[in-house]
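Reply to dn_fold:

You asked what the input looked like. This is it:
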Amino acid sequence: MAAKSFVKSKGSNKDERPRHSDSKKRKCNNDNSASSSSTPSNKKRALKHERQSHRKHAPTVRSSKEIWNELRVKNNDKATNAKLCTELHGLLKGKCMEVAMQHDASRCVQGVLQFGSAEQRRDVVLELCDAGGGGGGGNGKANQKNNQSINLAELCKIQYAHFVVLKMIKYCARDETCVKLIVKSLKKQMTKLAVHSVGSRVVELLFATFPSKSIAPLKRELYGPQYALFSTAIPSKDKESSAPSLPSLAAFIENDPIKLESTLDHLQSILQKGLDKSLTGFAYFHSLLLDYTSIAKPNDIRSFLTPALAEHSLHLLSTRAGTKVVCDCIAYGNVKDRKKMIKCLKGYTRSSLLHRDAYLAVLRMCDVMDDTVLVNKMLLAELQKNSDLTGAAAADDEEEKKLSPISDLVLSDTGSKLFLLLLVSKEEKSTDDDKKKTSADTLRWQKYLDPYEISVLHRNPTIIENEQCVPTSKKGDETRRQELAVYMKDLLIEVCVKHTEEMMKSKPGSRVLMEVCECYPSAELFTAIVEACVKNTGMLEDPVGHLTLKHIFLSESKKELEDDEPSLARMFYSKFDKCLGELASSNRGAFVLWALIQTSAQEEVKTALKPHAKNIEKLAKGGTESGKDGKERKPLAGCEVLLEALKT
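and this is what came back:
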């Protein structure tokens, strides 16, 4: 029997014994499942509920969370939300501050602010603002005894509770009573909140949402005690609004220069704390930086601000104020800081040029950076390739090849200004035609920019070294411009040839096209312009297209061209010589032909237009049309100018 049993056990399956033991374990587990409360997970859950039961207002919080779970359902109608919100407000009334401090119950107070009525929101705001004695109200003293150290400003600094304040600002911005209560509760706290890692979010939304006149007392605190005490309000120029406005920080310092040092020290301390906590993404912080640069000397910007912001430049380009600060840092920074800043912009050249504000930083970098090879490598090289969007939009490779990488830039108002600054000399003054719109001393490159852009891109930034003004760039403006223009020459000619018609009809594009024709005239480029006019017969009637042709002809008329040099005027005449009379019958066409007469093709054009002189004279004088209708026809100014040119 022993042998049999041995043989049986030896030939048996190896997994038999483990199965037998597993079945025993399973049986034991099933027996233990009857007392499920003894498992570790249930013990933790029980401990959690026990811990929550010892919190303040535990039953209220439990009921409020159940209501909030129903309130947040997106499919609820207004009546259901109103009913639930009334019930929730009734539970939380008088307990909002304590509940808002709890991380899992803060959302209940937010629910009342989001879904409640105007009256319910006002009650919550009044309770929270009165909690620390910040505002008026009958319950203020009682709440202050219970929460001596808790007020709205402290609520702004707590990770979960600050969301309640954000909801207050968002949903109560149109209620003047709530706005006054919130502003009053945050007074004398702004210098701490503005540099707090959590409170800064509240300050950001507060300054972006509330009216500027309401938050003026809070902004005053950020500029230091000197400004807060001694700044005098300026009477409002608006007749409808009688509320006075505060002077800018630069105007305040200009009127009282003695307070410059103390104000700078205060701003530097706030800005340093904000930079240590990486607050460069907030718009209010950008405004503070801009106010600092408005009163600081170039040496202060170079020594304090530029090194601190060099690696955070990209974050500042989201706003107008931040971009202005970056431009000042680029202008007054040293070579090392400029290299750090240009590395931050690498890969963002195209998106920056298409941004409403950030394009100025790219223009400033190209304007003052001496290392043009590095500028080309970091910024301009990105423009040599099509963007991802253009590649995705192209149907196939052949269609993609037809598109120029910079077609979107030359047709945009902001992106085209980079190419205009590279094409136009900084020393060249406005021509006689330009002086009609600008002053005689205006430089030609400035006519493409607005006054704000000219102030940002001011020339020859200098600092003080050894009591002497020293320029921050060693290379000359014209040398720098010519070196950068070489990198973009082929690309600019290519875009003008491939997208001629689009550029002629676009204001930004037409400016680039005219300057390319001025700097790099070629037969290929002029042929593309003539072909665009032939292909689109209405080009001479287009409000922008006819002006483009007119200005190119006038620009060519100032040059003395040899017979073998390419001439747009001669090409245009050879293509349209048989239909010049038809072109002269319209006002815009007549202006184009007048400009054509000023060029080297003058005699040929006059000869071709002589048979049509009577008709041109008739259109220039106007009068009543012959026929049944007998409509009054206005005299055409273009025909009048063209007629005078034919007579001379």
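Confidence is low (pLDDT under 50) at residues 1-37, 134-148, 389-395.
Hope that clears it up.
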